[in-house]
Amino acid sequence: MDLSIEQFVVRLLPVVSNLVFLFPAEQCLEWEWPVDVFLWSVIAVFASPAYHLCWGFNACLWNVSKHHVVDFWSAEMALPMVALYFIRIRSPYIRTWFILVSGVAIGLLVTGTDSSFMNQVVIGLVSGAIVVCYLLWHRYAHNYWPEYDMQRLVLGLGFLVLGVCFFVVQEWWPPYYGYLHAYWHASTATGVGFMVGIQPKRTAEEKMRCPPMASQIGGTIEGASILLPMPRRSTRFSPYGQTIAHRV
């Protein structure tokens, strides 16, 4: 394959730009979410790079359509994962099962249908509905809205929206597809990295309260739920999750 320097760079950028997903992987390591670390690491070093190596350089493990399915699955997994960063779950085992069920459901969706746009709409709506339900539950059960690290939340959503913009416009300018697709990877990965830290780390008390459900009928709303409330008034956190300021 004879490529000019510019063609080589355009095809290489979508491969190496996936390394930015090591940023959310590192953040999840700090928050003690090993399944998340594994998922973002696989996206960074295998799922998406393998597809773009196959598509751009004919360096394929399988045929390009199978690589595309794996790449598309990994991209769609970002939606429920970002939704999960809004939610405080009582048990890490239930959190893990949520990720596994989401992965299987998205896998069945992307392999069983031909419309990638409708897949994105369905997964986006379901993920958004989960977040809204959690916010409403939290307000009803604990009488205050969940409080997040607003700086990280704004940065995270900003980079995610920027990434979506790059993803949408990349088809409009085919000569710049490689650049725009790489920007999509980098922006999305950066946004996810910030979203990981919008809630604080689990406290020692929360780690001790691993059983997800109340053991008897008539428990409190908190005790009967698989969900935990966000810490009250802990509105600012350091990059490592410790509270550094409180709102009076």
Which helices and strands occur, and which strands form pairs?
Blueprint: H1 5-16, H2 22-30, H3 34-57, H4 64-76, H5 78-84, H6 92-112, H7 116-142, H8 150-169, H9 177-196, H10 204-208, E1 236-237, E2 243-245
Antiparallel strand pairs: 1-2
Helix pairs in contact: 1-3, 1-9, 2-3, 2-9, 3-4, 4-6, 5-7, 8-9
Quick overview of this protein structure:
This protein is mostly helical. It contains 10 helices and 2 strands, in the order H-H-H-H-H-H-H-H-H-H-E-E.
Properties at a glance:
248 residues, two-stranded antiparallel sheet, disordered C terminus
Shape: elongated
- Total number of domains: 1
> Count of DSSP E strands?
2
Determine the mean pLDDT: 86
Q: So how many helices?
A: 10
Structural class: mainly alpha
Strand order of the largest sheet: 1-2
Model description:
By secondary structure, the chain is mainly α. It has one domain (5-245). The chain has ten helices and two strands. It has helices at 5-16, 22-30, 34-57, 64-76, 78-84, 92-112, 116-142, 150-169, 177-196, 204-208; strands spanning 236-237, 243-245. The chain has a two-stranded antiparallel ribbon with strand order 1-2. Helix 1 (5-16) packs parallel to helix 9, helix 2 (22-30) runs antiparallel to helix 3 (34-57) and helix 3 (34-57) runs antiparallel to helix 4 (64-76). The longest helix has 27 residues, at 116-142. It is elongated, with a radius of gyration of 20 Å. It starts with a helix and ends with a strand.
